[in-house]
Amino acid sequence: MLRIASLSVTLGEFSLQDVSLEIHRNEYFIILGPTGAGKTILLETIAGIHAPEAGRMWMDGREITAAEPKDREIGMVYQDYMLFPHLSARENITFGLRQGKMNRDEQQERVHEVSALLDIGGLLDRYPITLSGGEQQRVALARALVLRPKVLLLDEPLNALDSRSREKMRRELLRIRRLTGTTIVQITHHFEDVYALADRIAIMREGQIVQTGVPSEVFLHPADRFVAEFLGIGNIIRGTSSVSGHLARIMTATGQVFYASSPFAGEVIATLHPEDIIVSAAPFASSARNCIAGTVSEIIPLGNTVRVVLDTGFPLTAVLTRESCSELQLVPGSRVYATFKASAVHVIPVSE
Amino acid sequence: MRRISLALTGIVFLVISVLLLSLIAYSPLPVLAASLTNPEIQFAIVLSLVTSIVSTAICIAIAIPVAYALSRYRFTGKKIVELVLTTPLTLPPLVAGIALLLFFGTTPWGKALDSAGFGVIFTPLGIVVAEVFVNLPYMVRILRSAFSSTNPRFEHVAKTLGCTETGAFFQVTLPMARNGLLAGTVITWSKAMGEFGAVLMLAGATTMRTETLPIALYLNISAGDLDLAVAAAAILIVISLAALCTVEYFDRNTNVF
C-alpha cells in the first residue's frame, strides 16, 4: 500500500540513507531504533515535510514523492501532540476539515463520529493547556483521524504516558485500527509496544533500516549483532496463563509449563532476558521456580559471551560466559537444564 | 548586599518618579489643556500619529517575512546578514539619519526616487522612512524570538492537515506568535512616536510641515516657548507609559528584553 524505495534525506547532522519499506494495508507497522536513528525524520519524510534527495514513494500505486503533505492522505501525531494552543479541542479537530471547505453539517457529523470513537465528547470546548497528557493525545489522534487518512503516522505515542495509561492506549490504538481500517506506522523504543501491537517491525540504526519482518522472526533471527544487542530480549513465548495468588502458570502451545510472577490470566506473551537463564548439566537446586529440560540446538559466539539456543519444546535463548560454556562442554545436542526465576519472566497480556 | 541593592533600587525609583512628576507639575492641567488646542501642537499630534502608524505598519510587513526566514532557514552568510540587520539598533539615530540623507540626497537611486515624486528629504515621507529604518531591527528581533520559540512541528502538523506552507504560517505560527507581534508593534510604534535624531536629519525640523511631537518639543524649546514644549513632552510621557504597560501585559511569556 505504502511503498518507499531507496529514500535518502539529509537534515543537518541527521540523515536517512537508502531506506526502503513496503507497508501493507491495515497493517500495524512499528519502527524501532535507538535515539538519533532518524526515525522521526523518516516519518516526516513519509508525511511530505522534507523533500528527499533520492528515492521515491508510492501510495496505492500513485507516486507521492513530490506531492504536497496535504495531498498524501497521511495523518501524523507527534509525541508531544502539537495541539494548536490558540484553538479549542473542537477547533483543533476541525482544523483539517476547514482547509477543505467542507460544509458545516458534514464537519459536525465528522467531529461527532471521531469524538465518539475516542470518547472525547466532553473535552471539545476546552483548550489544550487544560487537558491532561492522555486527553491531549486523544484530541491529537482525533484531529488526524477526522480526515480519514489512509496511513496514520505515530511518533512515540506512548512515551509520555505512565504504564497504566500506556496499556490502555495500546488497546485503544488497536481498536482504532480495527474500527477505522487505518494503516498505522508507529515509532517506538518500547519493546512492549512491539509485542502488543506490531504486525511487522523495522529496526533502524544511523539512518538505515537494518532489518524488517514479523516480530517473532526478527527477535529469533536478528540480522546482525546490532539488532541482537538492541533487542536484548531473546525470548518471547506465547501461551495461556492461569493465575493463582501472584503466580501465573503459563502453558505454551506445545504443552510446556512454566511460572511467572504476574496477575494476568488468559492469552499472554512472556518475555525473558537470556541473561536471566542459568544453564546447567544437572537439575539446578535453587529457589528459582522454573527448571526446564532441553537440548542445545545452536551455539553462537558473541565476543566474551556465548548465545545458546535451547530446544525445550519452545526455543529458549540463554547467554553464558565463554568460560562456563566450555566448562559445560556444550555442543549442539547436549542435554541441559534451563533454570530461571518466576520474577524474571515478564508477562504481557495479548489484547484482542 | 541586600540592604545596599534595595536602597539603590529605591533611590533610582524616587529619582525617576520625581523627574516625571516635575514635568507634569510644571504646567498645571488647565495650561496643558490650553496647549492641546494650539494648532501647532495639534498638527504635531496628527503628524506623529500618521507617520508612526504608517511606519509601524511598514515595519510589520517587512519584519514578518525577514524574522521568519532568520528563525527557520539556514543559509550561507546568515551571521553577516544578521549583523547588518542589527546595526541600526546600536547606531546613534543621528548617524542613521545622515546615512539616509546621503543615500537619498547624493546617490543616483535617491535622485531617481526624488524625480519620480518620492522625495524624502525634508518631507513628511522622510519621517516615515527614517522611522522605518531605525525601528525595523527591533521588530525583526522581537518577531524572530517569537517565531523561534514556536516549534516548527506545529507547522508540520498543519501541513499534514491540509495547509499549504503559507496557510500553516498564517493559521498556526503567526497566531501563536501573537504576543510577540503585539509587543513588537507597541514598542515600534512608541519608538516611532518619539524618534528625533534620524527624523531631524532626513526630514528636517520645519514648523507645521515635518513637525512631529519630538520636533515640536525641540523647536519650542529653541524658541523659548516652554509651555508648548512641556505639552509635547507630557503627551510623549503618556504614550510611553501606555506602551510600557501594554508591553508588560503582552510580553509576560516571551521576555524579549
| Overall SS class of chain B | mainly alpha
For this structure, the quaternary state is heterodimer
CATH hierarchy, class of the largest domain in chain B: Mainly Alpha
Classify the helix fraction of chain A into a percent range: 25-40%
Low-confidence stretches of chain B are none
H and E order of chain B: HHHHHHHHHHHHH
The CATH topology of the largest domain in chain A is Rossmann fold
CATH 4th-level superfamily of the largest domain in chain B? MetI-like
Specify the structural class of chain A. Answer: alpha+beta
CATH level 4 superfamily of the largest domain in chain A? P-loop containing nucleotide triphosphate hydrolases
Rounded to the nearest angstrom, the radius of gyration of chain B is 21 Å
- Greatest contact pair? A-B, 24 and 18 residues
Number of strands of chain A: 20
Count of all domains of chain A: 2
The neighbouring-strand order within the major sheet of chain A is 6-7-8-3-9-10
Low-confidence stretches of chain A: none
If helices are DSSP runs of H or I spanning 4 or more residues, what is the number of helices of chain B? Answer: 13
Please, could you describe this protein's structure?
Chain A is 26% helix and 36% strand. With 352 residues, chain A is of the alpha+beta class. Chain A folds into 2 domains: 2-231, 3-Layer(aba) Sandwich (Rossmann fold), CATH 3.40.50; 235-349, RNA polymerase II/Efflux pump adaptor protein, barrel-sandwich hybrid domain (OB fold (Dihydrolipoamide Acetyltransferase, E2P), Beta Barrel). In chain A, the strands form 4 sheets. In chain A, strands 6-7-8-3-9-10 form a 6-stranded mixed sheet, sandwiched between helices. Chain A is globular, with a radius of gyration of 23 Å. The two termini of chain A are 24 Å apart. Chain B is globular. The mean pLDDT of chain B is 88. The A-B interface holds A 44, 47-49, 68-70, 72, 74-76, 78, 80, 82, 84-86, 95-96, 99-100, 143-144, 147 and B 151, 153-154, 156-164, 167, 171-172, 175-176, 178.
